[in-house]
Amino acid sequence: MVSRRQVIVGSGAALAVGKSGINHAESALIRRVPYGACVNRVALEKDVDYRAALKAYCQQLTPEGGLFWDGLRPARDQFDFSFADAVLDFAEANRMTMRGHALVWYAAMPGWTKEISSAAEAERELATHIERVVARYRGKIKTWHVVNEPIGDPEDTVADLRPSVWLRYLGPKYIDLAFRLAHQIDPSAELLLNEYDIESVNDISPPRRQALLRLIRDLVSRGVPLHGVGMQGHIRGKDPIDGNGVYRFASDVRSMGLSLHVTELDVIDDTFPASVIERDAMVAERARDFLTPIFAAARPSVIATWGITDRYTWVPTWFKRRDGLPNRPLPLDATYRPKPLWQVIDYFCQRNAA
Ligand code: XIL
Fold first, then answer.
1. Which H/E stretch holds residue 142?
2. CA–CA separation, 99 and 61 (whole Å)
3. Which domain holds residue 336?
4. 1 in a structural domain
5. Which of 64, 266, 319 is the best mutation target for the ligand 1 pocket, counting ligand atoms within 8 Å of the beta carbon and taking the most?
6. What is the distance in A from the centroid of ligand 1 to the CA of 231?
7. Counting C-beta atoms within 10 Å of the first and last residue's C-beta, which end of the chain has fewer, N or C?
8. Count of domains observed in the chain
9. Does 29 map to a domain?
10. CA–CA distance from 237 to each of 85, 197, 259, 334 (Å)?
């Protein structure tokens, strides 16, 4: 099914119906890579232009934070699904799908999880959580970011992994456990690892990329139900994209039979020039440099950005500009006008590579 949105933001080709009765423009659009964005809670509730933008551009949505432990489980026995449900309702009402982000993350943990003090307790909480959350959205959330950001920094890793309550009490097998449980609860769901900082020319990305590949290979070789990999794509503007590294990574993922997803694209522009024209061009160029090797190696399942408009973005939380100007990391500006970044994303979504 081709949705109205895909037609609106599609190639712009007239929807000519040929003699055969097949709508050729539509059949071309069927192969369009879906575009998605994460959804800001307050904006969804209060900003009518925001809702209109999501409807006009997106085929997929990800609740921003609504499925993290701190939002979902303010207390050990209390689950608050209100925001995730609201995003799902909005998605379904507008013929979009919703992605699940994320079942396991080292961060955004509620205070009570600090009380966890044994392997048995950790396993029990992890199982309760995954069973409850995956079951609630069974058949509705078709793609889950099961473990978010598993790879650690060099100085604080155990077997490449980032410290968390799960690693502490369960060791690296917490990852197996999470995937196996999620698969058991919803065997039809596509289960992903999701990771950041693996795409740049700098000292950080290559070892992180290698560590992630080691983890992926290990999980696949042991038959853990891992189906795909999310490249978040919070692109550090100050560093160029490592085109060869990204191409090799995407090829390796694909050669293992896994799907590839761009899950949280934005371009961190804190070091870019003040000029809006120059800056927007540089943001678009970085995204193009990132997407080109990905599409050369594999057709991703989605291009999702972390937000849709510069009006609502997490980037200034960590990457404020020194000149005090607002960041411009996303496809639409703060007044919902599409920027060069949108043209890049739209171009790649229309490509039928690999
Ligand atoms: C950020 C959100 O945008 C914030 O609202 C939240 O409080 C903290 O996290 N990688 C991720 C996202 O996987 O969940 C993060 O999102 C950005 C980095």
1. strand 141-148
2. 6
3. 38-350
4. no
5. 64
6. 14
7. N
8. 1
9. no
10. 34, 12, 26, 20
